[in-house]
Amino acid sequence: MNRPLYVRYALPFLQWYLLMILATIFIDYILHRLGMVYIGRYLGYVGTATILLSFIYSLRKRQYIKAGSPKNYLKWHEYMAWGGAVMILVHAGVHFNAILPWLAVLMLLIAVASGLVGKFLLKKANETFKEKKIALAKEGLTKEEIEKKLFIDTVTVDIMKKWRVVHLPISLLVGLLSLLHIISTFIYSK
Question: Do 165 and 118 contact (CB within 8 A), yes or no?
Fold first, then answer.
């Protein structure tokens, strides 16, 4: 596995992000071609519900839900949040008449990007850490010597596991802006 880092980690990130944008454009195009643009309005509800359902992972991670593998819940969180984001982006369309929805969409794009960055960076850090540990063990070092040599790497990986400190506030801001958008829609709808 001597592929360059950008092939192993940067390209998958870019592919997922680009696929999200292309899927949004494709679905929006099809809805316009079929004269079914009104469906975009309902995709906002479905996308929001899908993203909210994806947070079942957080309940499992914090052990409010005992059943199931956290790893499987994480995969579902990633796919559901991505799919919900596509639906919300289709819902948003291209409307320049209100700033609040655009702020919500911008924060949504940033939240998806931060989720993908966290996923791929943390994966890389864990893989590199395990590879170094195995290499040092093959050199015949004791467990204590390995821990001493990898102290900085251990700290680094532990810090990287806290990337959610950035992802969570961004996600909460998306939720707040979305809630304000929904409330303002009910207040100002005709």
Answer: no
H, E, C per residue of the chain: CCCCHHHHHHHHHHHHHHHHHHHHHHHHHHHHHCCCCCHHHHHHHHHHHHHHHHCHHHHHHCCCCCCCCHHHHHHHHHHHHHHHHHHHHHHHCCCCCCHHHHHHHHHHHHHHHHHHHHHHHHHHHHHHHHHHHHHHHHCCCCHHHHHHHCHHHHHHHHHHHHHHHHHHHHHHHHHHHHHHHHHHHHHHCC
Residue 17's pLDDT is what? 87
Q: pTM score, two decimals?
A: 0.71
CA angle 105, 111, 117 (to 5 degrees): 140
Q: Find the length of the chain.
A: 190
What local confidence, expressed as pLDDT, does residue 115 receive? 83
Residue 75's CB is within 10 A of a number of other CB atoms, namely 12
Whole-angstrom Cα distance, residue 55 to residue 20? 19
Distance from chain centroid for Cα 164: 10
Q: What is the CA radius of gyration of the chain?
A: 21
Q: Do 98 and 144 meet the contact criterion of CB atoms below 8 Å apart?
A: no
Residue ranges covered by each domain of the chain: 1-94, 98-190
145 Cβ contact partners less than 8 Å away, ≥ 6 residues apart: 136
Residue 1 has a pLDDT of 45
